[in-house]
Specification:
Order of helices and strands: HHHHHHHHHH
Distance between the termini: 48 Å
Helix content: over 70%
Shape: globular
Number of strands: 0
Number of domains: 1
Structural class: mainly alpha
Radius of gyration: 19 Å
Number of helices: 10
């Protein structure tokens, strides 16, 4: 199991690293595929107890809407198009609900909408961050704040962890591990700013801003991780899927990235990208 987890982890990091480095359509297409799989895993988990059909109207509408949304993200910088796609998606879900009533419950439509907003839309902030003009290299803060925090929190937790504040939600998570992950991510952001970003952004405080971004991003990533654990426990499943050997599904591996990405984008835009 460890060997499978290690190999799949290396492959995954390599693919994501290349996508972050090259950006453009490569990154957009990869995020689209990840988003579609993540949506399928999440909506299946949320509806497993009440629905046995594999493909149905709400999912088809959701899939088409996710594709249109990512096309809008990749080919236009006008937020109006994104709002139109999201609004149109919600409208079509309600139309389908009315036309097919009582085939689908309101819970099914709400879970469908939530799954699209939670996974595909949140992950699209990675592409938006990579596309910040003249600040493309800042996209790496997402990995520093999410996966960097995961690793540091795990290492700190197994060595120093004594207090476990989430016994029902995530029994192995400790306060010490959480603090270690957040502080460690902030330090990584500081180092990233000093050794790399400082060469492109001659701002005397940029490394400290990156430390704040990575620290807050790490915190939001932990919230995403715990939220995913809560969803799995509520729906009595161990993993969202089995696509990535040793890691589970897309949602299992990207649970921390999902909330970290929008937080990193917003803070990067406010604290760094807008500076001259």
């Amino acid at each position: 199991m460890f060997v499978k987890r290690l190999i799949s982890g290396i492959v995954l990091i390599s693919v994501i690293g290349l996508a972050f480095a090259f950006g453009g359509y490569f990154l957009g297409a990869l995020l689209l595929v990840i988003s579609l799989i993540g949506y399928a895993e999440l909506v299946k988990a949320l509806c497993a107890e009440t629905e046995k059909r594999k493909i149905n109207g709400p999912d088809v509408i959701a899939g088409i809407s996710v594709v249109l949304y990512y096309l809008a993200v990749m080919f236009t910088s006008d937020i109006t198009f994104l709002i139109l796609v999201i609004g149109g998606f919600m409208l079509m879900e309600l139309v389908w609900f009315v036309v097919k009533f009582p085939v689908y419950s309101t819970d099914r439509i709400v879970r469908t909408v939530f799954s699209v907003l939670y996974c595909p839309v949140m992950l699209s902030f990675i592409y938006m961050l990579r596309n910040l003009q003249g600040r493309e290299f800042l996209v790496w803060v997402v990995l520093i704040a999410s996966w960097g925090c995961d690793t540091l929190a795990y290492c700190t937790g197994i060595t120093l962890g004594k207090h476990h504040p989430f016994p029902e939600l995530s029994p192995k998570k400790s306060i010490e591990g959480c603090i270690g992950g957040i502080v460690g991510s902030a330090l990584l952001g500081l180092i990233f700013g000093l050794l790399y970003v400082k060469r492109f952004i001659p701002d005397q405080f940029v490394e400290w801003r990156l430390a704040i971004i990575c620290g807050v991003g790490a915190l939001m990533g932990m919230v995403g991780d715990l939220a995913a654990s809560g969803i799995k426990r509520n729906n009595k499943i161990k993993d969202f899927g089995y696509l990535i050997p040793g890691h589970g599904g897309i949602m299992d591996r990207f649970d921390s990235v999902i909330l970290c990405a929008p937080a990193a984008y917003i803070l990067t835009y406010l604290l760094v990208a807008s500076t001259q």
